[in-house]
Amino acid sequence: MFNTLKKSLMVGGVAMATVCLATAAVSADKTTLRIQSHYAPEQLSGKLAAEYVDNIQTMSGGEIEVELFYSSSVVKTVETFDAAATGILDCDFTGGAYQTGKNPAFQFVGDIMGGYDTPYQQLSWLYYGGGLETAQQLYNKFDMELIGWWVYGQESLSSSKPIRTVEDLKDWKFRSPPGLETKIFEKLGAKPIVMDFTEIFTALESGIIDGSDASSLANNTGLGLYDIVKHATYPGFHSMPSDHLACNKTVWDAMPEKHQRIMKVAMESLALRTALANDVRNLEAAAKLKGQGVTLHDWSPEERAKFRAAALASWPEFATTPEAKALVESHMAYLKQLGLAE
Fold first, then answer.
1. What is the mean pLDDT of the chain?
2. 175: number of CA atoms within 13 Å, CB side?
């Protein structure tokens, strides 16, 4: 049994009561885990996370017990990884992209901008392109073990004007997350503006930006973006974030192999169901939006190739550590194997 750890949490600068959290209890036939997700229980991804937990508990005959914390209720989303690594939690159910400040290598396991066309290609790099072994070296460096990915698919750009080609990106002002994406779009003549996710709606309404990189077509619809702007890229091509399950390595290594196997195989199920569920939701959203006068722009293979070329040219600029360089080399080799890069 691991010692009980106490951490005083700070939210909005106000000290909360000290919370006492027990770390994982692991024995030959029992594993108890505390896992945090950034998703809310009513979101599709939150429901899928709950399904994953139910699967591993059921398949283990109750030998694995999980307490799942939704909506980053224990620590902030960006702090989940460290909370798991230090024993406040046991596993991180968020994503590697939140950890690029630790090492830019996390960009290439969190959001491989411009790399793969489908979640299935991206997952195949992990399982058949040597990706898991390469990524594991990065995670282990921070005392964590990467268990698997769940990838919901390409995100869509939303815009007040048509975005049919690379040329249409010239001088296009849009909300962008920080990091690699800004480098790529600047190369193509766009004007990315880094702002918080919560500011997108107001910025579109006031004309501060012409468009946004927010999320998938279905999620953008849920945000109400197409009540304001009437153009979107679909299917997307620029960004496909990977959520992960990563666990404290000491805890993971102490678990019985049968429990490890259950958790890994269940992650493969979660990955497939996530991609399929989001395919369905995006198709439904596309049909609905067309009926509401929103124009969807499906880029040609030639235009997609131009964007990928700009993305691949930006990768080395962001890969400033040995771990990041190793991941870029791994992706490049696999993209060439698939015929997606020269």
1. 91
2. 24
